[in-house]
């Protein structure tokens, strides 16, 4: 490891918490710790808060047309709603402004060590040694009793190898390198993958490229962003009380009525029920398919020179292939073996606790069917109360250890999710909140509302203090 300066060691106050990352999950954790008056430091390798939502952060996957896929009313932090004047689905710059306002309102920035890159973390003598490079380039070490990993999931692109890619005469890149539609002009563009980023970029290509294609391995359900004039998640929240099998039947029928048979557009028929995969909130893609500005293709068999050859034997001349193939969840600073992994996902209890070490937590590493920020708040309150118990109550801390020996609740409910890495441990927000509520009762803890609304000032939904 080559450093600009010799490492300096700072013993610091070991009875503190280190949070790695000042994105939404890290800030949510900081707010909860502040509410319970637990001392902490946040390490952020960039110059500002925001995580992936700050397009100026090197490695951010943000692109110009990116919007939230959950609506503003379902997406804000607990006690800190998004501004009334925001559209139903805020743009990325509005989300960044909201995150900045959140940090400012609760006085979190003063606890953040900006431009401090965590290199590695080690455990010695029941303390976490955080080794980091500061803004000057010096390497230092600080000691903490607790560690919270909140560095985010969308920083390490998953790049599958395509047959023939080494001899491909066009350009091959991952969606993390995509910024705006100017990169697509006068090109024949093939987008690979149908996650929400993939369909967004495919729509940009349909409008701006010479010709646009999207390659899908299977059929998907495309959920409109508005249903009967309401954001889809607002409409859906009113039926959460129904059994999931009935919800799937009702919404599956509704989609067939609204959209018809999508195989007529070259799309494959879905091989799973609606809500059995992460929702794709985009019907703009159907508009472009209906007009021929975008052409659906099956999985790629191989690349050959300038050609993309597909599983059905068809082929197209392509200038640019964009792999919208997701990201690998990584905690690169942790020693190997600290977390167990299943299909690339760290295994935890309630998406928060490390069963091997009750001084180690995680926040933000979750795939769910609803707005994530309130879940981050709720996870943060679990973390804060576990730390408080370890500070002041050995009997309560022992109770947590007993709880962590229990089997993981069924956080996906009765939904049969797709068998894929992305859907390993997929979490249905309704079931997750029920499991958290039971856990809080068993631990004799306070609710997130009691912690965050009872101790800290709540913001009324008026207007953003800063514009995007």
Kindly describe this structure.
Helices cover 27% and strands 19% of the residues. The protein has eleven helices and 23 strands. It has helices spanning 24-35, 72-75, 92-105, 196-208, 232-237, 244-259, 284-290, 373-392, 394-403, 429-443, 448-455, and strands at 8-10, 17-20, 40-44, 112-114, 117-124, 127-133, 139-144, 146-149, 171-174, 188-192, 211-215, 222-223, 226-227, 230-231, 280-281, 294-297, 300-304, 307-310, 315-317, 320-323, 341-342, 345-346, 360-362. The protein has a five-stranded parallel beta sheet, covered by helices on one side. A five-stranded parallel beta sheet has the order 9-20-10-11-16. Strand 18 and strand 19 form a beta hairpin. The longest helix is centred in the C-terminal third of the chain and has 20 residues, at 373-392. Mean pLDDT is 91; it is low at 1-12 and 461-468.
